[in-house]
Inverse folding.
């Protein structure tokens, strides 16, 4: 089947009026645009020196061949520094106090983290929002068409849908991610 | 042109491009072969000719820079559409950032560009259809455009958009319903 027939057949199966519509593009294109485009492109490429995918910066001749030797020679020529770390002469008692302090701080941070996680739970936060506010949010952010589609979808799940019966969970997830980008999908 | 013949033709183009002596001829042939399809694919997204021309030139400059390294994991045709799609989406996102506009304002920007077209006639079906397309989310608009206008099979669309054929089919059918609703409302 030719592609154009396939497209029309698919639209007819969807009972879409698009199947009957002309697919002509109404936009105007300047005269001879397509006749001159390749020349214009070539002209632009020549003007820019027909750059290649290589890096536009140049390096001295044989730079990378000699680089490892140069680095090695430079590393050998650099005098080695002798580092020595002087630890304070702590007593055993001071170390015990420090360990206890670290333990207390860790417990404090863990508790804070746990409490903040609890406060960020969407269910906890939503339970504090007034019903009227939720209704206003839905009125401002949920499109009529979305409601129409979701209601339709709920109704149509009872019927056998020839277009979606073979969809995998991955297909549905990809579709939702593309249709509602950046939105957190409910589990 | 039959699919197999097209692929062979593209392989010859690629071989010619890799040869220094025939590179320019191969490149010009490639541009002439794909320029109109890619132009319309871009134009349907960005509406104005000047913007479509800028993006198309960037696409072909990227093709010049990267064609030699093209590994033929996919066919040339889908690779070109992939570059054009990415370049167009990047341009649209840059416009949004540059103009610091919200999503709804962004839709009206393109709707206004449509109305500013020289032959625009809100009573004509083809212009109504373009207005309906501008009401779709960008990715859904691309899916609709590739299927409805470019008559691309779902498997090739999957290669262009890096997603599954099943998800694209659902997305296209959803887009068709949205376009219909828009046309009925108008």
């Amino acid at each position: 089947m030719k592609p154009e027939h396939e497209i029309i057949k698919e639209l007819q199966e969807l009972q879409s009026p698009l199947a009957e519509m002309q697919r002509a593009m109404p936009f105007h294109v300047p005269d001879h645009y397509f006749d001159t485009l390749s020349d214009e492109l070539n002209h632009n490429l020549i003007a820019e020196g027909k750059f290649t995918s290589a890096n536009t910066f140049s390096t001295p001749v044989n730079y990378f061949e000699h680089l490892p030797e140069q680095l090695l020679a430079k590393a050998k020529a650099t005098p080695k520094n002798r580092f020595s770390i002087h630890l304070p002469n702590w007593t055993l008692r001071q170390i015990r106090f420090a360990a206890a302090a670290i333990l207390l701080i860790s417990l404090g941070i863990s508790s804070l983290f746990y409490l903040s996680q609890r406060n960020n739970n969407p269910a906890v936060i939503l339970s504090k929002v007034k019903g009227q506010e939720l209704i206003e949010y839905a009125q401002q952010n949920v499109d009529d068409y979305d409601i129409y589609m979701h209601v339709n979808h709920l109704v149509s799940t009872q019927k056998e849908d020839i277009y979606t019966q073979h969809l995998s969970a991955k297909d549905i997830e990809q579709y939702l991610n593309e249709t509602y980008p950046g939105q957190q999908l409910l589990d | 042109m039959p699919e197999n013949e097209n692929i062979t033709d593209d392989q010859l183009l690629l071989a010619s491009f890799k040869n220094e002596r025939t590179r320019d001829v191969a490149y010009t042939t490639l541009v002439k072969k794909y320029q109109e399809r890619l132009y319309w694919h871009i134009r349907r997204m960005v509406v104005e000719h000047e913007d479509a021309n800028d993006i198309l030139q960037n696409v072909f400059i990227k093709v010049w820079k990267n064609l030699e390294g093209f590994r033929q994991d996919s066919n040339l045709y889908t690779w070109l559409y992939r570059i054009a799609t990415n370049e167009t989406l990047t341009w649209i996102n840059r416009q949004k950032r540059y103009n610091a506009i919200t999503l709804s304002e962004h839709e009206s920007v393109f709707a206004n560009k449509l109305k500013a077209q020289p032959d625009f006639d809100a009573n004509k079906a083809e212009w109504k259809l373009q207005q309906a397309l501008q009401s779709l989310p960008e990715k859904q608009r691309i899916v609709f455009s590739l299927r409805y206008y470019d008559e691309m099979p779902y498997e090739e669309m999957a290669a262009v958009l890096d997603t599954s054929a099943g998800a694209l089919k659902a997305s296209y059918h959803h887009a068709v319903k949205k376009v219909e609703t828009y046309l009925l409302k108008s």
In short: The mean pLDDT of chain B is 87. The CA atoms of residues 74 and 182 of chain B lie 36 Å apart.
